[in-house]
Amino acid sequence: MKNILQALRANVAELTPTANCFNVVRSDILQSAIRTVQRRAFNPTCKIDVVFMDTLDGSREGSVDTGGPTREFLTLLMRAILASRFFVGPEDSKHLSLDSIGLNRGTYVTIGKMISICIVHGGVGPHVFSARLLCQLTGEPAPPVDVMEIDDEELRSQILRIKQASSILEVHAAIASAASNLALLGSLTVIRTMTDRDEVVESALKFYLDNRLHVPLQQLRQGLECLGVLQAAVGSTAFRRLFSGGPPAPLTAEQVMHMFAVNYSVRGSSRRSEEERAVGYWRDWLIDVEAGDAVLVVEDTENRVTLNQLLMFVTGADRVPPLGFPGEPTINFLHTVTVFPEANTCAMILKLPLHNTFESFSDSMISGIIQSPCFGYA
After folding, report:
1. pLDDT greater than 70 at residue 170
2. Do 22 and 36 form a contact (C-beta atoms < 8 A)?
3. How many contiguous H segments (helices) and E segments (strands) does the chain have?
4. How far from 328 is each of 8, 50, 133, 257, 372, CA to CA, in Å?
5. Counting Cβ atoms within 10 Å, is residue 228 exposed (0-12), middle (13-18) or buried (19+)?
6. 112 and 220 Cβ atoms separated by less than 8 Å
7. Is 378 helix (H, G, I), strand (E, B) or coil?
8. Angstrom distance (rounded) from CA 40 to CA 32
9. Do 99 and 85 form a contact (C-beta atoms < 8 A)?
10. Three-state DSSP class for residue 218
11. Main-chain phi, psi angles of 51, to 5 degrees
12. Which of 28, 78, 321, 341 could staple 123 via S-S, CB 3.0–4.6 A?
């Protein structure tokens, strides 16, 4: 997978056209991205530039994209794509949904292009495509249709009732209650035998799960051909791990401890003593975060952070990219009177506050990460 990603990324030119600038509103990530990708002059084979509107000032200082904003944006964009109306199903097994307005606008092509951009430019994959969706995209035989894959609760209940009917009379009653939906699926017919019942169930499932999505799938494939992503998925089982099989395992406290280098002051100085205490607090805090024990209660609401949220705060990515980070995340220290942690997502620097007690350190870390309007300072 890494070799394929490196080969795909090698085809991305270092040039960044003006049309490749994503002007991003965090509250509307998906539409911000769609506007950019649908620009006539947008070129996915060139580098992209990301500007978050809530960190933009008159000189654009603090918003220049040298890596951090791109990592954050692509991570948030993939989340927004999978949470959009174009996908349905449980969090770990997403199916394609039918959106006729999006289909008419060709939005499925744009969705495919955005997924390709996330993968090639940032190493951010969906990870949660269902086995059926992945087979539909790669052209492999799909698994047998299953009534539990139907996302429409009413239709799923109706087909289950037909499937579980134990007599022709029960089948007729179930068919009658589902007549309007079966007619839309082209599966309404006269039932004389239980074999007829099974054929109705099978035809309804195949149409709902496969046939009605034929054109959206064609559009999505077209978008995924951008940057060679679909071709790579067809040719490599390893590369498909970016699409399916669930997200990578959660980070551990030990992994995060070893991930960061620490910039200490001179040994023996008063600053060094404060910094060593802060690192001790930091390591204990990571262990608490992993266990779910780092909790801050504010107005009867429990606030927790995860190690993935912490990584997002510092680097802009909620997990280590398949090709790794461009450098080593680093810990610096805030010797000024500062309560909360700070971060620079481009340089991947976490600035730890200095507190006299572990409890105040823990509270400040949780508050700083949760209340931050963005994931650090690019």
Report:
1. yes
2. yes
3. 16, 10
4. 23, 22, 36, 12, 23
5. middle
6. yes
7. coil
8. 15
9. yes
10. helix
11. -125, 115
12. 321
Contacts of 15 (CB under 8 A, 6+ apart): 46, 47
Cα(53)–Cα(64) distance, rounded to whole angstroms?
Answer: 12
CA distance 159 to 149: 12
CA angle 79/86/114 to nearest 5° reads: 55
Residue 356 contacts by C-beta under 8 Å, 6 or more apart in sequence? Answer: none
54: amino acid identity, one letter = D
pLDDT per residue over 186-198, tens digit each?
Answer: 999 999 999 999 9
Cβ atoms of residues 169 and 161 within 8 Å: no
Q: What are the angstrom distances between the C-alpha of 196 and each of 23, 171, 175, 189, 200? A: 56, 10, 11, 9, 6
Token output for 372: 């931050």
The structure's pTM equals 0.90
Looking at residue 253, its amino acid is A
CA distance 168 to 356: 76
Lowest-confidence region among 137-141, 251-255, 358-362, 372-376: 372-376
- How far CA 11 is from CA of 5, 6, 120, 179, 228, in Å, comes to 10, 9, 10, 53, 10
Q: What is the band of 303 on the pLDDT scale with cuts at 50, 70, 90?
A: confident
Q: Name the pairing type of β-strands 261-262 and 295-298.
A: unpaired
User: Smallest Cα–Cα separation from 119: which of 2, 277, 267, 287?
Assistant: 2
Residue 74 scores a pLDDT above 80: yes
Residues 6+ apart with CB under 8 A from 183: none
Answer yes or no: are the C-beta atoms of 162 and 178 closer than 8 Å.
yes
Q: Residue 120 has what DSSP assignment?
A: H
Amino acid at 296: L
